[in-house]
Write a structure and sequence with these properties.
Elements lengths: L13 H12 L3 E5 L5 E4 L3 H5 L11 H4 L5 H12 L5 E9 L5 E11 L7 E8 L23 H13 L6 E9 L2 H8 L1 H18 L5 E5 L3 E8 L2 H15 L4 E3 L2 E3 L3 E8 L6 H17 L4 E4 L2 H22 L3 E10 L5 E11 L5 E2 L5 H7 L2 H18 L9 E5 L2 H5 L3 H12 L6 E6 L7 H12 L4 E7 L6 H4 L6 E4 L1 H4 L6 H17 L2 E4 L5 H10 L3 E3 L7 E2 H9 L10
Parallel strand pairs: 11-12, 14-16, 16-17, 17-18, 18-19, 19-20, 20-21
Antiparallel strand pairs: 1-2, 1-5, 3-4, 4-5, 6-8, 6-11, 7-8, 9-10, 13-14, 13-21, 13-22, 14-15
Bound molecules: ligand C2E and magnesium ion (2 copies).
Ligand C2E binds next to strand 14, helix 12 and strand 18.
Length: 572
């Protein structure tokens, strides 16, 4: 394949010697390719650019050098170049560096196949990743983050990456927030939270390509900048890899913490894109992911801006709604599976807007928690639910208890037991008729403190239920120490009952565990007769779900209990 271009003439003129020396010192490599894209000849600096020893002269096949994800893009660009004799094109793609890592190459092609002096395609090759080698990273950060680029530095790198945007290439910006970091900061202090973020960054760095940038934004977010061709596909893959990085527990002193991440993604295809707007877009998308409950990825879209505005105004609107009495509580029956009898009801809050729409808790509980409104809202729901429960028909026909949800923020409030005591004594509801539901997430960061607080509540005589059981990461060893009375099996395990044997196995295992620990069980989200039959077969005592009744206003629930034929379905 090699031809005479590389064979030196016997005598070189002084000018030719100088030109060769210039090529040797060039930062960019030159390479001559044939019609099929294979190497004919390389310039003296090309092996250095790619990190190979000069004698190797990069004899690898071109396609073997290119990252598999970028091959489609290479073939497409090459086909287009071949159709344009004398034409030029440019491409950024990843190639195997001599050190075994992937590096980003900026390639410019001139199709000289028709030029008798060239008879090939001349490619200029620049290694965009080499700055990650010897060059030390500048950072304004102190302490644990001093080796990571900060916002200023990230903006510089993003501006460079955007400026390099060419046909087929895109720049991805991922803002990654660890969902549990604020809980760690509150329970263990800001230093521990910073150490945790730094440990997360180290894991992420190991998993990223050398050509990707990783930095830190503020004191609670990491940022990844990645140049790519495959846009959303690459972004999804990258976001999955980022999330997987945290699935192994982290150590905080003697405890282990499992982290999840809210990931916001913005994509630039336009060389005119503004770096700081891009970073802000990814940050807004991250905030949407976080508000929606975390542990998810969200691509930026203009709707995120509207959401962000409403997030800023939401806390004040929530306070106003509380003052204007716009919240209502709906109740969903909990039934005994063997008889179908209603034994309790769960209180579920809704926001009745002035325009007649009813907003579900998922759209505002997060904001209520973040803004501190949850304390007042939670106390209002508790008061309302206890007053309602007192009005339910006594005896076997009526719900014996009302279950009220508590968020992790409410549980952290040392004043909570006093609030519960006051509501119980004020309404006169017996404590045994109140169940407080908490999710396993309250155990994730500081299980001992959570257990102490739950014990203080239980000492009042109320029952404690573990909601959405099976979806958190709480250690089973804490379960036996947990002052709980009820496990509520999450809907995700109930959905597949009758179809997926794995769900039956999980539900069976939870039932066996509950029996061994002396706990009651409620299966959540039962929608079909098949699921109910399967739960009965497995010996599950209680259930809740649309099959038995949707959440509905208090008077409608009471009506349906007195006249069992009455529908409870509100469609909420
Ligand atoms: P949760 O405590 O797990 O409540 C059960 C949720 O599942 C409710 O959604 C209920 O409407 C829904 N659900 C019940 N049966 C079915 C079914 O058969 N199929 C399906 N697809 N869904 C079913 P909702 O009312 O939207 O509440 C969502 C979450 O919001 C609750 O989950 C709870 O964690 C939280 N929440 C509700 N009210 C309050 C409150 O007053 N305070 C706090 N802190 N959290 C609340
Ligand atoms: Mg609940
Ligand atoms: Mg639940």
């Amino acid at each position: 394949m090699s031809r005479s271009v590389g064979t030196p003439p016997l005598v070189l003129s002084a000018q030719e010697v100088r030109q060769r020396a210039l090529l040797r010192y060039a930062d960019d490599g030159l390479v001559l390719l044939d019609r099929s894209g294979e190497v004919i000849e390389v310039g003296p600096s090309y092996p250095r650019v790619l990190g190979y020893a000069p004698e190797k002269r990069c004899k690898m096949r071109t396609t073997a050098l290119i990252h598999p994800d970028d091959l489609d893009c290479w073939h497409q660009a090459w086909a287009e170049l071949m159709a344009r004799p004398g034409g030029t094109s440019a491409l950024v793609l990843r190639a195997r560096h001599g050190d075994g890592q992937w590096c980003s190459l900026d390639l410019t092609f001139h199709n000289g196949l028709d030029d008798p002096d060239v008879q090939g395609v001349v490619a200029t090759v620049r290694n965009l990743s080499k700055r990650h080698g010897g060059e030390t990273r500048r950072s304004g950060q102190q302490g644990v983050f001093e080796d990571l680029p900060d916002r200023q530095d990230l903006l510089g790198r993003l501006t460079e990456a955007v400026a390099r945007l060419r046909a087929y290439s895109q720049v991805l910006v991922l803002v990654v927030k660890l969902d549990q970091l604020h809980l760690v900061a509150r329970a263990c202090g800001r230093d521990q939270a910073a150490q945790l973020l730094a440990a997360a960054a180290r894991r992420l760095r190991r998993d990223l390509r050398t050509c990707d940038d990783l930095g830190v934004l503020g004191d609670d977010r990491l940022v990844v900048i990645c140049e790519t061709h495959t846009g959303k596909r690459e972004a999804n893959g990258l976001a999955k890899r980022v999330a997987a990085c945290f699935s192994e527990p982290f150590r905080i002193e003697d405890d282990q913490v499992v982290l999840t991440a809210s990931i916001g993604i913005a994509l630039a295809i336009d060389p005119g894109a503004d770096a700081s707007a891009l970073l802000e877009d990814a940050d807004l998308a991250m905030a949407s992911a976080s508000t929606a409950g975390g542990n998810r990825r969200v691509f930026f879209s203009p709707a995120e801006r509207a959401d962000a505005i409403s997030r800023v105004t939401l806390p004040a609107a929530l306070r106003q709604a509380l003052a204007d009495n716009e919240f209502v509580v709906h109740y969903q029956p909990v039934v005994e599976l063997s008889t179908g009898r209603t034994v309790g009801a769960e209180a579920l809050v809704r926001w009745a807007h002035a325009d007649g729409t009813l907003a579900g808790p998922d759209s505002f509980i997060g904001a209520a928690e973040a803004s501190g409104v949850i304390g007042a809202l939670g106390a209002w729901v508790l008061q309302e639910a206890c007053e309602t429960a007192l009005r339910w028909p006594a005896g076997p026909g009526g719900p014996a208890y009302v279950a009220v949800n508590l968020s992790a923020h409410q549980l952290e409030d040392p004043g909570l037991p006093a609030v519960v005591r006051k509501v119980l004594s004020g309404t006169g509801l017996g404590p045994s008729r109140l169940t407080l539901e908490v999710t396993e997430s309250v155990l994730v960061v500081d299980p001992e403190a959570a257990i102490r607080r739950l014990r203080a509540l239980r000492d009042l005589g109320v029952r404690i239920a573990i909601d959405d059981f099976g979806t958190g990461y709480s250690s089973l060893s804490y379960l036996k120490a947990l002052p709980a009375d009820v496990l509520k099996i999450d809907r995700s395990f109930v959905t597949g009952l009758g179809a997926d044997p794995a769900d039956a196995a999980i539900v069976g295992a939870v039932l066996a565990l509950a029996e061994a620990l002396g706990l009651d069980v409620v299966a959540e989200g039962v929608e079909t007769d098949t699921q109910a039959a399967e739960l009965r077969r497995l010996g599950c005592p209680h259930a809740q779900g649309y099959l038995f009744g949707r959440p509905c206003p208090a008077d409608r629930l009471a009506g349906s209990l007195l006249c069992p034929g009455l529908p409870t379905d509100t469609g909420s």
